């Protein structure tokens, strides 16, 4: 295959070494990619591709980086955002580490229950909670609803009254700050659908405070995802604290702050802040505010998703064909946009590397594309890769919003998932079969 002229858009070599994490390393000669001590090529041979593989140690380390950043500073619960990766074995691992959970649907609540976690440690966000979802959550004893509209507050009150079960509520406020991230994953601007405006919040709190079946628990604010700059967190916190002062003058006292998730990860060359860079400073600001206004320090929670699991996972995919059209080379692989939606949806960058680095193997510049019938079905563009048909590639930083955003488009089954943890290789989700896909449409 003729190598293309390299230009500045070409990603030289297969992988930005910085995207390889502590538990994802090339070992041996020839260099083979490993997660902890498991050889990924052997896993691809044993379990087939496409295959998601996660490092339990990486997930634990990432979770502990949050827990340690807050240790001794305040009463803090880290509520892992289930939408990032909702495999029940990963949820169990995190529950065992002490995580609470941020959920957005009855399905996510059912998953944490299946994982053996306590619903009381779950906060339920989302702009469109149905009566059925609210009923289920109250019956299961969900910790708190993060309420996103006045209408939703009324609905929760009605359901709670009907069931005779008081509901704990926090308002998710929209602070109208720019999280400086991709517009599709910014959530804290007034043009976004999320949260209640600062202007409306006092009225909704007053309603909740007066209702016999609502218990005002706290305030919640999540401004967006893949944040690489910490300053929007501080802007949002300033606005939240100002609102709390205003509410206090109405006799509404808030004792819990949920500051959301959103800390980014390195996909290519980003330098996102670490929890230890951000959380202690946020906590210090809250402590200072509480001391100045003569209040007790509130309890806190954070809702990280991507930064817990993103760099703990890779997607393994086999090269089926190398193809050349005009002046473009394609590496056609067996994973596609239905397995990893992020490139098609956000033009997101993911590092790519062959699992085995063979010296002297000729390289060329490829677009790595899947078999789905869409021109947008690409996983990586303009990458210099030394590959041949049959080789297996790792798509890096695929642990968050990978499998959870997967679909059956083109009637493709979802990939299998493997967790490497404490020296063991565990299949944590079977590959979806054609029969699995047909089940909901047959024998009706
Ligand atoms: C309400 C809420 N909390 C937490 C998260 C987790 O965000 P991230 O994965 O960026 O940490 C999200 C997703 O952006 C969210 O919508
Ligand atoms: N799906 C997004 C993140 C969305 C965050 C949810 N509010 C991504 O893949 O980056």
From TrEMBL:
Pathway noted in the entry: Amino-acid biosynthesis; L-lysine biosynthesis via DAP pathway; L-lysine from DL-2,6-diaminopimelate: step 1/1
Superkingdom of this protein's organism: Bacteria
InterPro entries xref list: Ala_racemase/Decarboxylase_C, DAP_deCOOHase_LysA, De-COase2_C, De-COase2_N, De-COase2_pyr-phos_BS, Orn/DAP/Arg_de-COase, PLP-binding_barrel
Residue numbers binding pyridoxal 5'-phosphate: 262, 303-306, 401
Catalysed reactions, as listed in the record: meso-2,6-diaminopimelate + H(+) = L-lysine + CO2
Pfam assignment, any one: Orn_DAP_Arg_deC
The keyword Nucleus is annotated on this UniProt entry: no
PROSITE patterns named in the record: ODR_DC_2_1
N6-(pyridoxal phosphate)lysine: residues carrying this PTM: 83
Keywords: Amino-acid biosynthesis, Decarboxylase, Lyase, Lysine biosynthesis, Pyridoxal phosphate
Gene3D superfamilies: Alanine racemase, Lyase, Ornithine Decarboxylase, Chain A, domain 1
Domain Orn/DAP/Arg decarboxylase 2 C-terminal: 52-399
Family: Belongs to the Orn/Lys/Arg decarboxylase class-II family. LysA subfamily.
Oligomer and partners: Homodimer.
Biological role: Specifically catalyzes the decarboxylation of meso-diaminopimelate (meso-DAP) to L-lysine.
The protein's name in its UniProt record: Diaminopimelate decarboxylase
Underlying gene: lysA
């Amino acid at each position: 295959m003729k190598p293309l002229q390299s230009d500045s858009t070409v990603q030289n070599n297969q992988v930005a070494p910085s995207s390889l994490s502590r538990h994802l390393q090339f070992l041996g000669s020839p260099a083979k990619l490993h997660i902890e001590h498991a050889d990924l090529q052997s896993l691809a041979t044993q379990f087939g591709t496409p295959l998601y593989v996660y490092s339990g140690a990486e997930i634990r380390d990432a979770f502990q980086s949050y827990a340690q950043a807050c240790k001794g500073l305040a009463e803090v619960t880290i509520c892992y955002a289930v939408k990032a990766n909702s495999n029940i074995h990963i949820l169990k691992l995190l529950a065992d580490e002490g995580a609470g959970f941020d959920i957005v649907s009855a399905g996510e609540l059912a998953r944490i229950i299946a994982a053996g976690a306590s619903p009381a440690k779950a906060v339920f966000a989302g702009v469109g909670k149905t009566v059925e979802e609210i009923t289920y959550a109250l019956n299961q004893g969900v910790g708190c609803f993060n309420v996103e509209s006045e209408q939703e507050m009324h609905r929760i009150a009605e359901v709670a009254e009907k069931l005779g079960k008081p509901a704990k509520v926090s308002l998710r406020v929209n602070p109208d700050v720019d999280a400086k991230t991709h517009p599709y994953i910014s959530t804290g601007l007034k043009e976004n659908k999320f949260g209640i405006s600062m202007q409306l919040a006092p009225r909704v709190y007053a309603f909740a405070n007066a209702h016999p079946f609502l218990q005002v628990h706290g305030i919640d604010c999540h401004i967006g995802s893949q944040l690489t700059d910490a300053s929007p967190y501080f802007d949002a916190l300033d606005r939240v604290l100002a609102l709390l002062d205003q509410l206090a003058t109405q006799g509404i006292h808030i004792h819990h702050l949920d500051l959301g998730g959103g800390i980014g990860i390195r996909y290519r060359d980003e330098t996102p802040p670490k929890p230890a860079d951000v959380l202690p400073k946020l906590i210090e600001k809250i402590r200072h505010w509480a001391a100045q206004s003569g209040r007790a320090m509130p309890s806190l929670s954070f809702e990280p998703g991507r930064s817990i699991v993103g760099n703990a996972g890779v997607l393994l995919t086999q090269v089926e064909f190398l193809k050349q059209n005009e002046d473009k080379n394609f590496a056609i692989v067996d994973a596609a946009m239905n397995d990893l939606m992020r490139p098609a949806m956000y033009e997101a960058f993911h590092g790519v590397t062959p699992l085995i680095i063979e010296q002297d193997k000729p390289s060329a510049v490829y677009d790595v594309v899947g078999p789905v019938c869409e021109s947008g079905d690409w996983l990586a563009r303009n990458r210099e890769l030394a590959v041949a048909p049959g080789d297996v590639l790792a798509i890096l930083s695929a642990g968050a919003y990978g499998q959870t955003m997967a679909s059956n488009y083109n009637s493709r089954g979802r990939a299998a998932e493997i967790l490497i943890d404490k020296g063991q290789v565990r299949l944590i989700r079977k590959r979806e079969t054609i029969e699995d896909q047909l089940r909901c449409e047959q024998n009706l």
